[in-house]
């Protein structure tokens, strides 16, 4: 592809939002209020604003299908072409979303529970994916990471220098991510791992420590602070 710019018609996005908020104490994190708006709406706003993306698919759980449809209708999003039902696992949900992006050359996969992404992160991922066909946002690990056995005893301390924490957006050439899901023999934790399992190279590009995935009430409060600060230009 060289340095050819990507046309918007070539790029589709899957917003994965079909999970169950096990650690939120009964609160549905995707529709939890963040500065007066549902958390998921912040993700949709960024993808709607990205000039690189032309088609968006949202994958939701059965209980959130109707609330999701109402959110999209109220928001007037023009790029959201499909809202579909997810599967039992995250991997199944992405596979469902891919069915609606046939014809796209590139696919951006993002967690619906990461509301602090930016248009720049999406564009950076698309640029880096041109190198190998796959790219994953990631940040260097800042804590020492230990391998611990089932008895609680430390088995190994890993060298932190080469350890990164994977995030989304993750960007793939459509044929690569489609092949990875068709050939999948195990349930892996992210799409980059699926692609790696087929022998493809994945380029890690700089993510952001603000690009937090909300899994607890504390993280929900933190992303609200970040988004409020952005709104007032701090």
Write the layout of secondary structure elements.
Elements lengths: L10 E7 L15 E2 L2 E2 H11 L5 E6 L4 H11 L4 E6 L4 H9 L7 E6 L7 H14 L1 E7 L5 E3 L5 E4 L6 E10 H10 L7 H7 L5 E4 L10 H15 L3
Parallel strand pairs: 1-4, 1-6, 4-5, 7-11
Antiparallel strand pairs: 2-3, 6-10, 7-10, 8-9
Helix pairs in contact: 5-6
Description of the structure:
The chain is α/β, with parallel strands linked by helices and 234 residues long. The protein has one domain: Spore Coat Polysaccharide Biosynthesis Protein SpsA, Chain A, CATH 3.90.550.10. The protein has seven helices and eleven strands. The chain has helices spanning 39-49, 65-75, 90-98, 119-132, 174-183, 191-197, 217-231; strands at residues 11-17, 33-34, 37-38, 55-60, 80-85, 106-111, 134-140, 146-148, 154-157, 164-173, 203-206. The chain has a seven-stranded mixed sheet with strand order 5-4-1-6-10-7-11, with helices on both faces. It has a two-stranded antiparallel sheet with strand order 2-3. The chain has a two-stranded antiparallel sheet with strand order 8-9. α5 crosses α6 (191-197). The mean pLDDT is 92.
Quick overview:
With 234 residues, the chain is of the alpha/beta class. 33% of the residues lie in helices and 24% in strands. The strands form 3 sheets. It has a 7-stranded mixed β-sheet, with helices on both faces.
């Amino acid at each position: 592809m060289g340095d050819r710019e990507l046309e918007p018609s070539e790029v589709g996005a899957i917003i994965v939002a079909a999970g169950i908020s096990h650690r939120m104490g009964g609160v549905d994190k995707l529709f939890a209020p963040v500065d007066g708006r549902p958390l998921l709406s912040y993700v949709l706003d960024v993808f709607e604003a990205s000039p690189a993306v032309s088609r968006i698919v949202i994958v939701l759980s059965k209980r959130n299908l109707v609330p999701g449809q109402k959110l999209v209708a109220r928001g007037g999003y023009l790029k959201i072409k499909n809202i579909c039902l997810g599967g039992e696992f995250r991997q199944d949900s992405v596979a469902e979303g891919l069915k609606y992006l046939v014809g796209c050359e590139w696919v951006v996969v993002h967690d619906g529970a990461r509301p602090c992404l930016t248009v720049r992160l999406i564009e950076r991922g698309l640029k880096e994916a041109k190198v190998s066909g796959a790219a994953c946002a990631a940040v260097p690990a800042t804590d020492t990471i230990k391998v611990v056995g089932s008895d609680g005893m430390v088995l190994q301390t890993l060298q932190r220098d080469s350890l990164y924490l994977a995030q989304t957006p993750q960007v793939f050439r459509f044929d690569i991510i489609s092949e990875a899901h068709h050939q999948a023999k195990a349930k892996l934790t992210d799409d980059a791992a699926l692609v790696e399992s087929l022998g493809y190279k994945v380029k890690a590009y700089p993510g952001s420590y603000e690009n937090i995935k909300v899994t607890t009430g504390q993280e929900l409060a933190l992303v609200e602070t970040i988004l409020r600060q952005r709104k007032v230009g701090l």
